[in-house]
Each structure stands twice: as C-alpha cells, then as structure tokens.
Amino acid sequence: MSNLFEAAQTCLAVCEPDEKTALTHDTATAWREEWLLPESIQPPEPIGEPGRPQYPRLVAPRELPRRRVNTAEGHAALLHAICHIEFNAINLAWDAVYRFRDMPREFYDDWIRVADEEATHFNLLHRCLQNLSYEYGDFEAHNGLWEMAQTTAFDPLVRMALVPRVLEARGLDVTPGIMKKLQACGDECAVAALEIVLRDEIGHVAIGSRWFKYLCDQRQLEPETTFRNLLSQYMTGRVRGPFHKQARLEGGFSEAELAYLDSVG
Predict the structure, then answer these.
(1) Domain that holds residue 158
(2) DSSP state of 265
(3) Is residue 187 part of a domain?
(4) What is d(CA 262, CA 210) in angstroms, rounded to the nearest whole number?
(5) CATH of the domain at 180
(6) Domain-embedded: residue 77
(7) Total tally of structural domains belonging to the chain
(8) Residue 251 within a domain
(9) Which residues, 6 or more positions from 160, have their beta carbon under 8 angstroms from its beta carbon?
(10) Contacts (Cβ under 8 Å, ≥6 apart) of 219
(11) Has residue 128 been placed in a domain?
(12) Disulfide-capable partner of 241 in 13, 225, 257, 265 (CB 3.0 to 4.6 Å)?
C-alpha cells in the first residue's frame, strides 16, 4: 500500500500536462482499487506553486489582450484560456486532497474524482486546440485560480466556499454562452467537449457545496450566513452575474443564496 497524500503531492508536482493527466488517471484508479491509504505520515507542506509547464507565461489579468472569437487567433485564445482553467483545476483538486487531512474518506473520493475528471476535460479541450494548430502554452494566461488556492490554504471551509462555490461556479454561468460562440465558429469539437465539462462541473460545484455545509455543521455555523460573510470578506466587487440559476441549484446553492448573489452581482 502507498500513501494517498504522497501520491497527491506527486501529482501536484508534475509539470508537463500529458504526464500530469496520465498520472492523475493512474492515481485515481489506484485509489478506487484501494491501493492507497489516507494516512498522515507528516503534515502538509506550506502551499507554494504547483507543477506547471514553462509556458504559458503568467501575467496579470489586465495584461491579457482582448480578441474577437470570430478570428482564428481569438478562437484559439478562447480555447486556450479554458484549457488553462482545466489544468489549474487538476492542481486545485489534488491540493484539496493533499492539504486537508483527517477528513472522511468520502471527501477524498470526491476530490480524486474531480481531479480525474478535470484531467479528462483538459485532454478533450487540448485536442480541440490542437485541431486549430495551437498548443497549450501558445498564449499568455493568468494565475487567479491558484492565487485563490493559496489564499484559502489555511482552512478547508474557506476553500470549499470560495473555489468551487465562487470561482468554479462562475464556469456554470458562462459556459453556455461560450458554447454558442464556438457553435457559430463551427467548432463542433469544442462544443461537444464543453457539454461534458458543464455536466461534470455541476457535480464539482455540488461537491464543494456538500463539504462546505459539512464543515459548517461540524463548527455549528449557519451555511448561508457563513457564505455571505466569506463573500464579503474575500470577494468584494468580484462576484458578477448573470447567474445560471438552474445549474447553480443543481450545484447545491439555495434560493436564498441565489437571491443574495443577484443583489451583489
């Protein structure tokens, strides 16, 4: 038997996308087949930077050029941005597994499943990008998702609230519109891939909601109030609508939470 936390750390450290996705799939299989045990041999290391390739070069969001999706370069840049999100999401899932110890086994079931599915998403979308004669790394990108992982590394409750329920949930809102744009470009590959992504991401947001509520219950906190307080503390001016309400309801949001988001977004 091998240690799950060491395996998760290894997946985090891998830099090359093909190697990271392959190792992610292999590690997820090993977990499902009970070859890994969640035993804390030593505490997690302080969060730093995950394994990532030399490119894309990371810049501030304001430095990313705006491109029209109806141009060849703009079309590819949009797909590249989504690939970058999915690559980061692999690291985010493995960091949740690695960093947050003494959780129920089902927590690791869920986040290993997320890592496995995010690796599939990256590969699907990367193939679509390659169909356009581009590779992951050909455009610049920003590091917002991982910066939020660093901000929330001290507490799984805060991580569950702000990464899956805010940043990843934003994908539920914008993906249908992106699919329409890509459909207009005739990119059936990307549209088919994003149908899978949207379906799975609803489940990922629901996983975040489930564990956020579990941790609130453990600490005797009221979930809706706690979520509002965390949004106010960490996300002032950064929660934007419109919101895909049906997808968010399926992802574990309450009607009251959606009403609050409407009021601030």
Answers:
(1) 2-36+64-264
(2) -
(3) yes
(4) 22
(5) 1.20.1260
(6) yes
(7) 1
(8) yes
(9) 208, 209, 211, 212, 215
(10) 157
(11) yes
(12) 265
76 Cβ neighbours under 8 A, 6+ residues apart: 129, 132, 134, 138, 139
In single-letter form, the type of residue at position 37 comes to: L
Is 111 exposed, middle or buried, given 0-12, 13-18 or 19+ CB atoms closer than 10 A? Answer: buried
Question: What are 243's two structure tokens?
Answer: 């919101």
Answer yes or no: pTM beyond 0.70: yes
> What is the structure's pLDDT at 40?
80
Two structure tokens written together for 83: 């690939």
- Of the candidates 131, 35, 136, the one whose C-alpha atom is nearest the C-alpha of residue 90 is 136
- Band of residue 1 on the pLDDT scale cut at 50, 70, 90: low
> pLDDT tens digits, residue range 94-127?
999 999 999 999 999 999 999 999 999 999 999 9
Give me 149's structure tokens. 């992982």
User: Which residue's structure tokens are 């392959």?
Assistant: 22
Which structure tokens are listed for 96?
């949740």
pLDDT tens string 22-58: 999 999 999 999 999 998 878 999 999 999 999 999 9
Whether 137 contacts 123, CB under 8 Å: no
pLDDT tens-digit readout, 142-181: 999 999 999 999 999 999 999 999 999 999 999 999 999 9
